[in-house]
Amino acid sequence: MLVTGVMLALALSLAVGRWHETAAILHPSRGDVSVPADYNPKPRDVFIDTGHGVIHGWFFAVDQNAPTLFYIHGNSDTIVKRLPVIKGYIGLGLNVFIYDPHGFGKSQGGGNRFNFVSDAFAAYHYLTERMRLRPRTIIVLGQSLGGVPALRLANKEMVGGLILEGTFTSIRQMARDMYPSLPIWLLASSDYDNEREVRRLKTPVLIINGSADLVIAPYHSQRLFDLAPEPRDYVRIDGAGHTTMFEIAPETYYGAIARFIQRTAAHPAL
Questions:
Q1: Burial letters for 239-257: b for 16+ Cβ neighbours within 10 Å, e otherwise?
Q2: Distance of CA 260 to the CA centre of its chain
Q3: What domains can you pick out in the chain, each with its CATH number?
Q4: Residue in 161, 186, 167 with CA at minimum distance from that of residue 265
Q5: 158-189 pLDDT tens trace
Q6: pLDDT in tens, 16-38
Q7: What DSSP string runs through 25-71?
């Protein structure tokens, strides 16, 4: 009976821990999903049936011969919040695709950590199968939590390159950072292990972070860079926070992305 009780207590603790983890990780928001009247070019609305509901995205068509930046955003807000940074990608002559995962914006359903990853694959297949984009012309950018599906996508599908922006090493390490005096990390899942994924990369990767990031400590990006195989690049922007890199140093931020994409176009992943 004692053993059974201990096992039940452990199972309950794990269940509560996973529920808390999902709630702590994902902050779905609806809000207004509209493009300002003066935004140019106007995006095309894209609706993708993932098998778990329909998700909504925008495709900004700039040049049919240009690479497409496939932007996977983080754990809060909607695609509207990313319009300022997208303006800079468009300025580089890139097509841009961005979507809201389940539970965000106009996308159906509720967000969970499994759909958060599978949504990226559904979007990728829409781009390559329905829109006929060539896989090597797709550059995946994972911002913050978006680095999780971005890494998995780069490891399982053909892409031209991968950009990780302010991404963490693992949920367990984030738990250690947040609760340094408590063994909360023992209850954390191993689902979002970016260290494991980055070691397996076979595509060029650019890692960017801000030196003043108070959400995900800068050492996470440095660690991912140290583990990533060549070819790899790393840019740390002094004074920038978690989402302000493009504002603090736009020439450095967009310049690094432009050079990375030029190199990947000249020397595509094998």
A1: ebbbbbbbebbeebbbebb
A2: 17
A3: 2-266 (3.40.50.1820)
A4: 161
A5: 999 999 999 999 989 988 888 876 666 556 66
A6: 344 344 556 888 888 778 898 88
A7: H-B---------TT-SSPPEEEEEE-SSSEEEEEEE-S-TTS-EEEE
- Looking at the whole model, is its pTM more than 0.70? yes
Residues forming a β-bridge with 47 = 56
What b/e sequence results for 36-75 when a residue is b if at least 16 CB atoms lie within 10 Å of its CB, and e otherwise? eeeeeeebeebebebebeebbbbbbbbeeebbbbbbbbbb
Edge-to-edge strand order for the sheet containing 68-72? 44-49, 54-60, 95-100, 68-72, 138-143, 161-165, 205-210, 232-237
C-alpha 213: how far from its chain's center?
Answer: 16
Q: How far apart are CA 33 and CA 229, in angstroms?
A: 38
Structure tokens at 19: 């529920």
CA distance 228 to 146: 17
Tokens of residue 141, six digits: 């950018």
Tell me the C-alpha distance between 128 and 160, whole Å.
13
Amino acid at 226: D
CB 83 within 8 A of CB 105: no
